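Input record (Table S2, row 244):
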Amino acid sequence: MSGWLAIAGLGPGDDALITPEVSAALAQASDVLGYIPYVARIAPRPGLALHPSDNREELDRARHALRRTQAGGKVVIVSSGDPGVFAMAAAVFEVLEEEPGWAELDIRVLPGITAMLAAAARAGAPLGHDFCAINLSDNLKPWPVIEKRLRMAAQADFAMGFYNPRSKSRPEGFGRVLSVLREECAPGRLVIFARAVSTPEERISVVTLSEATPEMADMRTIVLLGNSQTRRVGRFVYTPRSAP
Ligand code: SAH
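Output record (S-adenosyl-L-homocysteine complex):
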């Protein structure tokens, strides 16, 4: 008898932002797999095997989860935020055709609160009109693709959320992103740096595009760029629901 696989999002950090559906799957699980800091959020209990792994091992982790599911495990793969946003759900589907029978398994994707929406809620409503999400990591795509998407999204006046803005292995990438945005947008465009949202280290800062510097972001930061109409009201930032 084969088991089931839930690909679950743990939200941005605070356990209060884990959905009841995800909590129920975790309570029934025999195995939890995921990147080391995400698995560290799961309380150990008898009958539950925790399998933390490095963040460069996503496809191997997906295969491991499918093998355990086929062997009867009740398996949860955890991602932060939502598992479908630059995370494990797509990695599982990428390997699904490698072995006969995997695509027939009981697989469910359980949504979570993604960093972009958690950060937007802290700031007010900066994503109140049309928006898009761009992963700034160039591990899986070349820089020219990132640059083209940035320019076209800016020209179409989308608000944007930037995941993985900066890492030690890519210290110069976010500087290039800011240069492209300065070519396409007015200097007063609002930028929100939201770090470690919903954790004790949370820090939110709102600056203009001309004030933004690469050092304001790290790998625990999501960067939100307003559209041309995004404005401040008191201590909040919002984007009106209508286009000009
Ligand atoms: N699946 C995740 C995103 C994984 S990519 C989600 O839906 O949120 C990892 C990137 O997400 C980080 O580099 C950062 O840009 C963002 N991120 C994740 N958690 C965050 C948090 N609590 N606060 C701010 N940004 C966060």
